[in-house]
TrEMBL record:
<feature type="binding site">
    <location>
        <begin position="15"/>
        <end position="17"/>
    </location>
    <ligand>
        <name>FMN</name>
    </ligand>
</feature>
<dbReference type="Pfam" id="PF02525">
    <property type="entry name" value="Flavodoxin_2"/>
</dbReference>
<comment type="function">
    <text>Also exhibits azoreductase activity. Catalyzes the reductive cleavage of the azo bond in aromatic azo compounds to the corresponding amines.</text>
</comment>
<comment type="similarity">
    <text>Belongs to the azoreductase type 1 family.</text>
</comment>
<feature type="binding site">
    <location>
        <position position="9"/>
    </location>
    <ligand>
        <name>FMN</name>
    </ligand>
</feature>
<protein>
    <recommendedName>
        <fullName>FMN dependent NADH:quinone oxidoreductase</fullName>
        <ecNumber>1.6.5.-</ecNumber>
        <ecNumber>1.7.1.17</ecNumber>
    </recommendedName>
</protein>
<comment type="function">
    <text>Quinone reductase that provides resistance to thiol-specific stress caused by electrophilic quinones.</text>
</comment>
<dbReference type="InterPro" id="IPR029039">
    <property type="entry name" value="Flavoprotein-like_sf"/>
</dbReference>
<dbReference type="InterPro" id="IPR050104">
    <property type="entry name" value="FMN-dep_NADH:Q_OxRdtase_AzoR1"/>
</dbReference>
<keyword id="KW-0285">Flavoprotein</keyword>
<comment type="subunit">
    <text>Homodimer.</text>
</comment>
<feature type="binding site">
    <location>
        <begin position="85"/>
        <end position="88"/>
    </location>
    <ligand>
        <name>FMN</name>
    </ligand>
</feature>
<keyword id="KW-0288">FMN</keyword>
<keyword id="KW-0520">NAD</keyword>
<dbReference type="InterPro" id="IPR003680">
    <property type="entry name" value="Flavodoxin_fold"/>
</dbReference>
<feature type="domain" description="Flavodoxin-like fold">
    <location>
        <begin position="1"/>
        <end position="186"/>
    </location>
</feature>
<dbReference type="InterPro" id="IPR023048">
    <property type="entry name" value="NADH:quinone_OxRdtase_FMN_depd"/>
</dbReference>
C-alpha cells in the first residue's frame, strides 16, 4: 500500500497542519505494516505556477516534473494533505500541486452525461488548520474547494480533520489542537 504525504504550510515547525498531517500518517503507519510513504513539502520544494510552456510540453523538464507529480498521486492508495487556510482558501503552493493532479483524461474526463472522476480508488485525508473560526460558514473557500475538487476527481473517501480558531488565543489553539489530535486517535471514519 502506498501513502502520499503532502504539506503546504509556510510556518515550518509552528505549523498546526504539519503536526496533524504527521499524526495522521503515523496512525496509518501503525496500522498498515510495510506501508510505503512518499513525502513532498510544497514549501521547501514548491512546484512553479502552471504555465503555457509546461501545458504545451514545450518546457520538457517542467512537463516531465508535472507528469511525475501526477503519477505519484495516481499511484497512491492514501493521500494525506496538510492544508492551511490562507486568505480564506488554500496556499498557492498547494494550488500549484492541484494544477498538476487535475488533468483531463487522467484524473477526470468529460462525458455526454457530465464530468466523470477517474481517481476514485484512493482515500484522501485533509489536515485543515485555520486561524479564525469559520465552521462551515460562507468565509470558508478552503474545505469546500477541496471537497469539490476531490469529489470531481472521483474520490468518495474524503475526510477532514480540522483545527480552527488557532489565532484567537493560546488556549484556543491548544484546545483545538487537542481536539484534532483526539479525532485522529479515533478511527478516521469516525473523525470525519
Ligand atoms: C498568509 C496567511 C494567510 C492567512 N489567511 C487566513 C484566513 O484567511 N483566515 C483564517 O482564519 N486564518 C488565516 N491565516 C491563519 C492560518 O490559517 C493559521 O495560522 C493556520 O494555523 C495555518 O496553518 P499552519 O499552522 O499549518 O501553517 C493565514 C495565515 C497566513 C500565514
Amino acid at each position: 500500500m502506498k501513502l502520499l504525504h503532502i504539506d503546504s504550510s509556510a510556518l515550518g515547525a509552528n505549523s498546526a497542519s504539519r503536526e496533524l498531517s504527521a499524526a495522521i500518517v503515523a496512525r496509518w503507519q501503525a496500522q498498515v505494516p510495510g506501508l510505503s510513504i512518499e513525502y513532498r513539502d510544497l514549501d521547501a520544494d514548491p512546484l512553479p505556477h502552471l504555465d503555457g510552456a509546461t501545458l504545451a510540453g514545450a518546457d520538457t523538464g517542467a512537463a516531465a516534473e508535472s507528469e511525475r507529480v501526477l503519477q505519484q498521486f495516481l499511484d497512491a492508495d492514501i493521500v494525506v494533505l496538510g492544508a492551511p487556510m490562507y486568505n480564506f482558501s488554500i496556499p498557492s503552493t498547494l494550488k500549484a500541486w492541484i494544477d498538476r493532479i487535475a488533468v483531463a483524461g487522467r484524473t477526470f474526463r468529460y462525458t455526454a452525461d457530465g464530468p466523470e472522476g477517474l481517481a476514485g480508488n484512493k482515500q484522501v485525508i485533509v489536515a485543515s488548520a485555520r486561524g479564525g473560526l469559520h465552521g462551515d460558514g460562507p468565509s470558508d473557500f478552503q474545505e469546500p474547494y477541496l471537497r469539490f475538487l476531490f469529489g470531481f476527481l472521483g474520490i468518495t473517501g474524503l475526510q477532514f480533520v480540522r483545527a480552527e480558531g488557532l489565532g484567537l488565543s493560546p488556549q484556543h489553539r491548544s484546545e483545538a489542537l487537542a481536539a484534532a489530535r483526539a479525532a485522529i486517535a479515533k478511527p478516521l471514519a469516525e473523525a470525519a
